[in-house]
Amino acid sequence: MKFSIRRINEYLIVLLLLILVPAGLYFIRGDMNFLSGNLQYLFNMRPSTIILRFNTLDAIAIFGGNAPSGYPITWETVSMYLNVVLYLMLGPYLLFKGYKKAVKNENRTKPWYWYFGVAICIGMLFIVPAEITRMYVFENTLEAADKSRTKDLMRTELAEVGFATAEYEILEDGVDETFKIQDLNLNDLKFEYSVESGQSDTLIILSVSDPDFPDFEVKMEVRPYNKRLLSQRN
Amino acid sequence: MIAGIGFFIPLYFGKIWLGLFIALLIGIIFLGRLLSLSKSEFESKVTYGVIYGLVILVVLFNAIAFANDYGNRDFQKDLLLEIRKTIDSGITQADVREKLIYVLGQYHQNDRGSIVATFNDTMPEQLGEDGVYISDFDLRKASGDSSMANIDDDNINHFYEIDKEADEIKVIVVTDISLGADPEYKNYDGQTGQFEMRFTLNKEGVNYEVLN
What we know:
The complex is a heterodimer of chains A (about 230) and B (about 210). In chain A, about 55% of the residues lie in helices and about 10% in strands. Chain A has five helices and four strands; from the N terminus they run αααααββββ. A four-stranded antiparallel sheet of chain A has the order 1-2-3-4, covered by helices on one side. In chain A, α1 (about 5-30) packs across α4 (about 110-125) and α3 (about 75-105) packs across α4. The longest helix of chain A is centred in the middle third of the chain and has 46 residues, at about 125-170. Chain B has about 210 residues and is α+β, with helices and mostly antiparallel strands. Chain B folds into two domains: about 1-70; about 75-210, no CATH class. Chain B has a four-stranded antiparallel sheet with strand order 1-2-3-4, with helices on one face. In chain B, α4 crosses α5. Chain B starts with a helix and ends with a strand. Chains A and B meet through α2, α3 and α5 of A and α1, α2, α3, α4 and β4 of B.
């Protein structure tokens, strides 16, 4: 059986590219980015992440009371176009052109640009793991946001109960050893409340919990006749 | 070239998603055309099938990535505005509602004759000119509190109304950043669609309402 050294070399180069391109992309996208300036944006197979980055910066500006900057024509926005051209046009074109030339060649030698096409197309395929990772991360972000939202709701509702308790004591002199949250007649409370023992009409300690978040509880001190009426602690 | 025109013209008009959509669409059409042209060049049907499958995979994931990112384009903004609303509401409750309940306590504890007079006696510094309620932030800023040095504005506007006949004080709070439920709502301070709260103090208690 006869093996062509040239063919083996071609396979070895492709194998090398299969290792080097993912490794290069891994470093560029991580903390060990070796590219200077904004060159890294050229190697972004998900160009819409640039828009999301602008949206996040705008959101932070709005949050702080500043005007959003929108989408300026900068290297980052231009790189989105270059990403599309590089991964969906130039890479496949070089691969096809190189293949076509090699087929016509007696030895089937691949031209240099065929290897560039292979390298770019390997990068292009990285949209698959990148998108799967992003979906997984986003699910976690949604879950974390939900938890955080529930904690905020617990604190907000506890404050509502705290204010109502203070008013109940001031208006009806109602806080004594038999006092229960149900005495406040607050409708639609979402969480579970308890009044801690040892309270007096000048210091009432309330706590809120949620059976879905057994590790999280917030306590609140209510001082109905004090300027600092409520103080919350986790 | 066509992809460039399709991308940069919408970008110039601030329609960046449209620009990217057009560029991706042209890229995918180009890829499909290249694939159909190359069919006759492949000697092996298996190789062509593999390339075809990979192209479909790439096109599919580009579409999924675009659709997901477009669908979540306002996620961060909505989340931050929701947090900002929680903060604005919390600060206002701590600042205004606490004080009004304190005044209520003073009124009942000391058997005062009037809620308005009790407020005037206990918290005169809060009642500014022309119906502007002076918040804790404004008071601390005016007193030169160093912790406020880097904050120009809390973006929360406070106002008050006194009805001596009804013996009642209303404090109206409008935020500059947090949005209310109705975008057409005319706010107390002339803004439109902003988050607005109203606290009413009378001898029956303190009533809290979210007006928008």
